[in-house]
């Protein structure tokens, strides 16, 4: 078997991989995560014919294409997500945030660690229900190319769609025959979203500002200093009066930001008025 030739992960190897993961994508692999790291990288290292994690680590560093690092990131990152995850965010969006943003023709959202797309499509369903006459644009980004490919294809099994309101299933999905995927997002909804690779610890390629940013359940894996830096960049990417949604297990209270706390896991950038910044209601 492939795995029999791979030597167990040594403490020094864990330390090297830990440093690389932190530098390359902010992931904070705390001591105690050795088994998890070994398990997640085992298949990758073995199938590359490596005899040790040290050899695997060296190959990642030597690969000028960046593919080996991308594969390592894919293996280490947690992509868990679901439709309608943390549903009170979507209630708040629908009943409060949209109104507070005022009348506008375009409504733009950035889902900044969108994984396999369920967050993007949930946003699309909520916005199309709430403001069908607006032009809805959703940008989904993630560090994982694999996850982005699933998001872009937008086809999901019946199991993943279980629990979605029947009205959403009939309005926003089409049945897929064969191929194991039961439902695919309808083309007119897919056309409202665009997906790009963006590593949150690197400068943002998106230069414009957004009225709504969802960045949920990614920063929780970052160390405190990286969280602070990424949260500050996200705050800068918000337009005045715009809202930032983070995961409920994440808190920005320790980050010194220019944002107001609105409710658990929701922050707002103060509205800019002549003569300086004013508090938004
Ligand atoms: C647990 S999922 C969260 C998905 C979704 N936002 C949600 O709350 O259900 C975390 C996602 O963050 C992505 N991620 C991790 N580190 C990242 C980084 N440095 N830049 C961009 N995305 C990252 C992972 O690839 C993964 O898809």
Structure description:
By secondary structure, the protein is an alpha/beta fold. The protein folds into two domains: 2-76, Chemotaxis Receptor Methyltransferase Cher, domain 1; 87-278, Rossmann fold (3-Layer(aba) Sandwich), CATH 3.40.50.150. Helix content is 40%, strand content 20%. The chain has helices at residues 11-25, 34-47, 53-62, 67-76, 87-100, 118-130, 145-153, 158-161, 166-172, 187-190, 224-236; strands at residues 106-111, 135-142, 155-156, 173-175, 183-185, 193-197, 210-215, 238-246, 260-263, 266-268, 271-273, 276-278. It has a seven-stranded mixed sheet with strand order 6-2-1-7-8-10-9. A hairpin with a 2-residue loop joins strand 11 (271-273) and strand 12 (276-278). Helix 2 packs across helix 4 (67-76). The model is unreliable at 277-281 (pLDDT under 50). S-adenosylmethionine binds next to loops.
CATH superfamily caption of the largest domain: Vaccinia Virus protein VP39
**What's the domain count?**
2
Our measurement of the CA-to-CA distance between the termini, rounded to an integer number of angstroms, reads 62 Å
Average pLDDT confidence is: 92
Helix content: 40-55%
Q: Count every helix, treating DSSP H or I runs of 4 or more residues as helices.
A: 11
Largest sheet: 7 strands, mixed
Alpha-beta content class: alpha/beta
Q: Please write the string of helix (H) and strand (E) elements.
A: HHHHHEHEHEHHEEHEEHEEEEE
């Amino acid at each position: 078997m492939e795995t029999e030739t791979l030597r167990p992960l040594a403490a020094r190897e864990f330390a090297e991989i830990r440093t690389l993961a932190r530098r390359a994508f902010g992931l904070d692999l705390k001591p105690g995560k050795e088994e998890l790291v070994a398990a997640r990288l085992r298949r990758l290292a073995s199938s590359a014919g490596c005899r040790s994690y040290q050899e695997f680590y060296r190959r990642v560093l030597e690969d000028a294409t960046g593919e080996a690092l991308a594969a390592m990131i894919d293996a280490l990152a947690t992509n868990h997500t679901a439709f309608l995850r943390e549903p009170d965010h979507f209630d708040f969006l629908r009943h409060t945030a949209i109104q507070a943003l005022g009348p506008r023709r375009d409504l733009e959202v950035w889902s900044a660690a969108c994984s396999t797309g369920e967050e993007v499509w949930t946003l699309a369903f909520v916005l199309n229900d709430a403001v069908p006459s607006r032009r809805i644009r959703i940008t989904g980004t993630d560090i994982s190319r694999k996850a982005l490919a699933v998001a872009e294809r937008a086809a999901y099994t019946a199991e993943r769609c279980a629990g979605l309101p029947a009205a959403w299933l009939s309005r926003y999905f089409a049945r897929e025959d064969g191929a194991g995927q039961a439902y695919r997002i309808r083309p007119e909804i897919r056309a409202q979203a665009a997906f790009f690779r963006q590593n949150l610890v690197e400068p943002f390629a998106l230069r414009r500002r957004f009225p709504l940013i969802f960045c949920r359940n990614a920063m929780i894996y970052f160390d405190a200093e990286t969280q602070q830096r990424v949260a500050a960049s996200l705050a800068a990417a918000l337009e005045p009066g715009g809202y930032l949604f983070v995961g409920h297990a994440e808190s920005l209270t320790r980050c010194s930001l220019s944002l107001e706390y609105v409710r658990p896991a929701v922050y707002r950038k103060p509205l800019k008025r002549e003569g300086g910044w004013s508090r938004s209601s």
